[in-house]
Design a protein that fits this description.
This protein has 387 residues and is an alpha+beta fold. The protein folds into two domains: 168 residues, no CATH class; 194 residues, no CATH class. Strands 6, 7, 10, 11, 12, 13, 14 and 15 form an eight-stranded mixed beta sheet that branches. The chain is built from 17 helices and 15 strands. Helices cover 43% and strands 21% of the residues.
């Protein structure tokens, strides 16, 4: 790795003590651990989450300032950062060849600071992503915290890229809905280093006007809505429902249905896969149920019914009222029917079948968008890395 970052001859200028020091002070891989106090995740779950995180770190590459050369985030932390930390701390009192060694790594003099910040921001996004993937909106939400920033008085933490995994119970309240008391759950997600971000929305974003239209309201969801999502999205629900819900409300696309209901689009990578049927009750936006894109009651479902001459029961019989159909069938090979779905605004449902074979990269786009939207920018990460 020294040869990739600069001049491999630097290794031969290091005396035995230098080599032993760089080995002992090498940075360890990113690892999720239980905090000292409070919530403790069982060892099996912790291993599953760590294995998943390491896969993501090895899949995502970053630039480091060398033309046509990238490293994955796992290698960046373990190798690049170890060499950089050694380079940054070496001086003439530490090694007689300190200046020669420094000159062999011009990369670290130039724009490396910028690339380093971006790498750590990507790691924050991926750890946030792991928290979202394993959260359960009805029982526990995870958020991640770098041990280094949590325990600044412990000098050893600089060598261990340990991240605490915290658990928070979702906020819930009882609302009267259609004459019945129902428990509803607040929409939130964990942001690495920040905690749980509880989402709000401004009624004006949904087409409402009036004296209170600019006052933020909280977003709540019924357990029934999550059940409908699981039933109609199937595979997509298992991991990705929370990851896609959050950006869907940061910049909402909405419609007023024929029956007067408010429909808020549920998107993945800027493409719609359904709608939440919602109402404003007091100071809360309540997500009552979920409609798959082809279901009756959606603009696309209505157009599809007209183009194909089918009704709700026909859709159920054919299976096109659930996403499972578009994954398991060979329907995309029928060009005539496929053209009808495209005309109705549902053509992209066929595209995801291929993308799901390699899905981690496009999911990261949502975490990137959310972190930037929430103001988790480069200046904050730069300040953290300087401390």
């Amino acid at each position: 790795m020294m040869g990739c970052l600069g001049n491999k001859q630097a290794f031969h200028l290091m005396d035995p003590v230098d080599k032993e020091t760089i080995y002992l002070t090498r940075l360890r891989p990113v690892k999720l651990i239980n905090p000292d106090n409070g919530f403790k995740l069982d060892e099996r779950s912790l291993k599953v989450m760590n294995d998943h995180l390491n896969i993501l770190l090895k899949e995502h590459q970053v630039e480091i300032g060398i033309p046509n050369f990238k490293v994955n985030l796992y290698d960046f932390i373990v190798f690049v950062e170890t060499i950089f930390m050694y380079w940054r701390n070496i001086d003439s009192g530490y090694s007689k060849d300190a200046e020669k060694i420094k000159q062999m790594f011009p990369l670290f003099y130039d724009q490396f600071k910028k690339f380093r910040i971006e790498a750590y921001m990507q790691i924050d996004r991926l750890t946030s992503m792991i928290g979202w993937l394993y959260s359960d909106m009805l029982h526990q939400l995870f958020w991640i915290e770098n041990e280094r920033f949590s325990d600044r008085n412990n000098p050893k933490t600089i060598y261990f890229n340990n991240y605490f995994i915290h658990s928070v119970k979702p906020e819930c309240v009882s609302l009267e809905i259609d004459g019945h008391k129902r428990i509803v759950y607040r929409l939130g997600c964990g942001i690495t280093g920040e905690g749980i971000c509880w989402l709000n929305i401004v009624p004006e974003q949904l087409g409402f006007h009036g004296i209170l239209s600019k006052v933020p309201i909280q977003i709540y969801i019924q357990a029934h809505t999550l059940e409908r999502m699981k039933e109609r999205l199937g595979y997509l629900f298992d991991f990705y429902y929370l990851m896609n819900m959050v950006p869907s409300f940061l910049d909402p696309e909405f419609y007023k249905a024929d029956d007067g209901n408010l429909l808020i689009a549920y998107k993945m990578n800027s493409k719609k896969y359904g709608y939440f049927k919602a109402d404003i009750i007091g100071d809360k936006l309540l997500l009552r149920t979920f409609l798959f894109l082809t279901n009756d009651g959606t603009p696309e479902g209505k157009k599809l019914a007209r183009l194909l001459g089918i009704q709700k029961e026909d859709k159920k019989y054919l299976g096109i009222d659930k996403y499972e159909f578009f994954i398991k069938s060979d329907f995309e090979n029928n060009e005539k029917l496929k053209a009808v779905f495209h005309e109705a605004g549902c053509g992209h449902l066929f595209e995801l079948k291929e993308q799901l074979k390699n899905n981690t990269t496009f999911q990261l786009k949502n975490t990137d968008y959310i972190s930037r939207y929430l103001g988790l920018d480069e200046k904050k990460k730069e300040k953290e890395l300087e401390n």
